[in-house]
Amino acid sequence: MKFRDLPKVALGSASVLAALYVGFSPRVAKNLYGNMLFHPYPYPEGDYQSGHIAGLVYRDVFFESLDGTRLHGWYFEQTGARRTILFSHGNTGNLSDRRSLVASVLASGENVFIYDYRGYGRSHGNPDVQGVIDDACAAYDYLAKDCGLASDEIVLYGESLGAAITCQLSIRRKSAGIILQSGFASLTRIGREHVPLMHLYPAILFPHPLLDNLRILRSEHAPLLIVHGVKDTTVPFHHAEEMYARARGPKTLIVFPEADHTDIPEVAGDKFISALRTFLGGLPTVDVEVVISD
Helix axis angle, 270-281 relative to 99-106, nearest 10°? Predict the structure, then answer.
């Protein structure tokens, strides 16, 4: 190779490196990073046989996402409930893995509708960021259109990754309140904390929507409850502190010093249930028609 050819070789090498850099970015290599972000357990993994949680029978619900993908959920209805909590779960497993958590949420006295994103449980398709957001919107629309619920009768609940999906849902659909449990401040922040290589990529090379809870919470939103364990090693507690600091009011932060990422129902027990009841009880009153039969 002659000296005069070196600039061409260098330019060619730089082009290859640039192509590799962009090609392996989270936004372009969606399948690679999707496998890191989503860990679905498809049916029949999980307990689909008992038909109830904490003695309360659930109803199987099948509905379509915004693009027609067939989705599945469980709907728990109980006497005296004034609202329905729309539950968006975390990135691993499926809805059947949330039995302990759902039992605690049901103990608040409200109805619960938990659903599976595409690719999880009995829901069809394969998960991606925009797809699971569409799935959350479809779950809300099922409650609003098929069940006839008004926006002030729906509370949005998100666990871990579901907290980010819930924030995205909150700017697309109105609700009475928002509960974020063990959530991260933004996908870029948590991604860079777990995979330092992600620091090489600017936000523009992450999937869009960015799943940036901080940006959403800076704007006006429904009454907010943030719940987090101080010993959370998956999503460190500082994420909850930052979301609370940036969020507009009304807002509440409930801290459980001994809890990790997934054990809040077991570690916090009645204190967790009490926090849910207090928050839900403080939401504006919903008019309920009471029919007394002879």
Answer: 50
Which helix (H) or strand (E) element contains residue 21?
A: helix 6-23
pLDDT in tens, 55-81: 999 999 999 999 999 999 999 999 999
Whether pTM > 0.70 for this model: the answer is yes
Q: Are 132 and 172 in contact (CB under 8 A)?
A: no
- The CA distances from residue 147 to 29, 119, 250, in Å, are 39, 25, 28
**pLDDT tens per residue, range 253-265:** 999 999 999 999 9
Tokens of 53: 């949680």
Distance CA 223, CA 188 (A): 25
Backbone angles phi, psi at 88, to 5 degrees: -105, 115
Of 117, 139, 132, 153, nearest in space to 42 by CA:
117
72: three-class secondary structure by DSSP: strand
CATH of domain 11-281: 3.40.50.1820
- Going from N- to C-terminal start, the domains of the chain cover 11-281
E strands, the chain, in order: 39-40, 52-53, 56-64, 70-76, 84-88, 92-93, 111-116, 154-159, 177-181, 224-229, 251-256
- The Cβ of residue 204 has, within 10 Å, a number of other Cβ atoms equal to 9
d(CA 221, CA 151): 13
